[in-house]
Specification:
The protein is α+β, with helices and mostly antiparallel strands. The protein folds into 3 domains: 183 residues, Up-down Bundle (Butyryl-CoA Dehydrogenase, subunit A, domain 3); 133 residues, Aminopeptidase, CATH 3.40.630; 143 residues, Aminopeptidase. α8 crosses α10 and α9 runs antiparallel to α10. The N terminus and C terminus are likely disordered.
Length: 501
């Protein structure tokens, strides 16, 4: 029996004993009420059903371990039975009724102001923690509790989407607490990397089909083409409390060079190559599986671990690259096309891009040839110049890979001709290169200065005046100790850069 199976069995046993205690003693807490229950066996036959907030207060009051696990399971069962309105009401209860205790918090603030120090700071930290955090910890002890809390956050997102004002602020506070706890419960130390292949149990393969978020897996035959050939790999992270439910997975194609089209990688009639002949590993789909874990980062760990595993298995691999979608490009381009004062698209370019509104534009070679340079020029601006919140690129996939230390390597015109690919990016796809010796420095350049590290092939698509500004040599540095020290630091950092762990 595996350790995780044993743990689940133990929790179930504890819960069963706890339920027996609850059936015997009803809702009463403490020895006095237990004695009263024994003295009145005929008048207290069936404990009245209590509402969820009352059950949560009881759970937080500090019952015994067995009854506490059973009570947590009872709370989760009642939560699971709630309709949409009931869930909204309970989540608002978590926001308003299970926040920090204001009286304790005021006293802790006064105590810290009167005598600042480690002890009063710790007391203030404890008082400032919302009661719901401890509630979530105790719910997590129930069998299946971890998964239930993840699903609870999924429901929270739906309620938050329609909330406004004070309600929205309260629900965001609940989400902040859940996000904090889940980031701890799902940290890298708990995650297990598993190789998914055609021999993986069917219940997991069904979830791979369902969770695929980038390139739809049409049926079992399509899945087999992605898993069974010798030049295909798939890896997923799992958590011990969600044994058969992946958190995130990546699909990998082994290839002789960097691909420009997803159609070629996924073609039904393609001829597989021998894995030992491949020199390039292509990450062509990364799918997050659990909506309730949104914002909890797994992808950076996943790619780096898979790179290490593939290097160990196939030493001939020299290039690690993605073939990635550009989900925000069509929306951004539509705004620029409508903007009469657009600094990106002059009227002549807008006239050319009007062809994008014609169905099947990409199937006409002449139209595609005319559109290509203008579209790629706009795409270069989109990646290198357009900024969103915090001065980062507007494209979410770009933020992910650049934040991991990848380099924007190439823009691929008509790389994805599926309906989804044409709708979200007019078929545009890009390659991000994970050059192992440069990952650390690229990450620092992006994190510290918001710099998009891109190959010259991408920058060449920029407008001539923008490109000239980009490639203009920097001002001549002044001589002095400060400049020399900076150069020395950069040299040391370059020498210290290591492949990802």
């Amino acid at each position: 029996m595996s350790s995780s199976t044993f743990f689940r069995s133990m929790l179930t046993t504890i819960a069963d004993r706890g339920r027996a205690l609850l059936r015997r003693h009803g809702p009463m807490v403490g020895d006095l009420l237990e004695d009263a229950a024994r003295l009145m066996p005929l008048t207290v036959k069936t404990p009245p059903k209590r509402d969820l907030p009352t059950l949560c207060d009881t759970l937080l009051s500090g019952r015994g371990e067995a009854s506490g696990v059973a009570l947590a399971e009872q709370i989760l069962d009642q939560w699971d039975a709630l309709d949409e309105a009931g869930r909204r009401t309970f989540l608002l209860d978590l926001a308003y009724r299970f926040g920090p205790d204001p009286i304790k918090l005021d006293k802790a603030i006064d105590a810290y102001r009167a005598a600042p120090g480690a002890a009063t700071a710790l007391a203030l930290h404890t008082a400032a923690e919302a009661r719901r955090q401890e509630l979530f910890r105790r719910l997590n002890l129930a069998p299946g509790g971890t998964e239930a809390v993840v699903r609870m956050r999924e429901a929270l997102f739906k309620v938050m989407a329609g909330a406004q004002g004070v309600e929205k602020a309260g629900l965001e506070a609940v989400d902040a607490d859940l996000s904090h706890l889940l980031a701890s419960w799902f940290n890298r130390g708990f995650l297990v990397l598993r190789h998914i292949d055609w021999t993986t149990p069917a219940n997991i393969l069904e979830k791979i089909i369902r969770y695929e978020a980038v390139h739809t897996i049409r049926d079992w035959n399509d899945l087999r083409r992605r898993l069974a050939p010798s030049d295909r790999r798939c890896f997923a992270f799992f958590h011990p409390q969600l044994l058969d439910d992946p958190l995130i997975f990546v699909e990998v194609a082994l290839a002789p060079d960097i691909p420009a089209s997803i159609d070629a990688l996924l073609a039904e009639d393609r001829a597989p190559m021998a894995a030992e002949d491949a020199t390039t590993a292509v990450f062509y789909s990364i799918s997050n599986c659990q909506e309730g874990l949104r914002g909890v980062s797994f992808g950076n760990f996943l790619i780096k671990q898979v790179v290490e595993d593939l290097r160990g298995e196939l030493p001939n691999l020299r290039t690690f690259v993605t073939l990635s979608p550009v989900p925000g490009f069509a929306g951004w381009l539509a705004k620029e096309r409508k903007d009469e004062g657009s600094a990106v698209l002059p009227p002549a370019d807008k006239a050319i891009l009007a062809a994008l509104d014609q169905p099947g534009w990409h199937q006409d070679p002449g139209t595609a040839a005319t559109v290509s340079p203008v579209l790629l020029q706009a795409a270069a601006h989109y990646f290198l110049k357009a900024k969103g919140r915090g001065g980062k690129p507007v494209d979410p996939v770009a933020r992910f890979h650049l934040g991991n230390g990848a380099r924007l390597e190439r823009l691929n015109f008509l790389g994805d001709l599926s309906a989804k690919g044409l709708a979200q990016a007019y078929g545009l796809m890009v390659n991000y290169l994970y050059k192992l010796d440069d990952i650390e420095i690229n990450h620092e350049r992006y994190a510290d200065r918001g710099e998009v590290v891109a190959a010259s092939a991408v920058r060449r698509h920029l407008k001539a005046d923008v490109e000239a500004e980009e490639t203009k040599p920097p001002p001549k540095a002044k001589t002095g100790g400060g400049t020399g020290e900076g150069a020395a630091k950069r040299a040391r950092r370059t020498a210290a850069a290591q492949p990802p762990a």
